[in-house]
Amino acid sequence: MSAAHSEDWSSYARGSHLLLVHCAALDSTTPSAFSRLEASIGTDLARLLVFALVGRQRRRGSSVP
User: Fold this and answer.
1) Phi, psi at residue 64, to the nearest 5°?
2) How far apart, in whole angstroms, are the C-alpha atoms of residue 43 and residue 7?
C-alpha cells in the first residue's frame, strides 16, 4: 500500500468516526426547526415564512431533483 493511499484511508476512517460520533450525539426528542418556529410565532405565520423561502429556492432552480 502506498503512503498516499494510506493517508487517504486514514482521513476517510477518521472522518467516518467523527460522523458517527456526531450522529450518535443527536437528540431525537428535540423538536424540528419548523415546530419550534410554529410554537414561537404561530402556525399561520410559520407556514407563510417557510413556504415563501421554499418558493424562492424553487424559482431559482435547485440541483436536487
Assistant:
1) -95, 130
2) 50
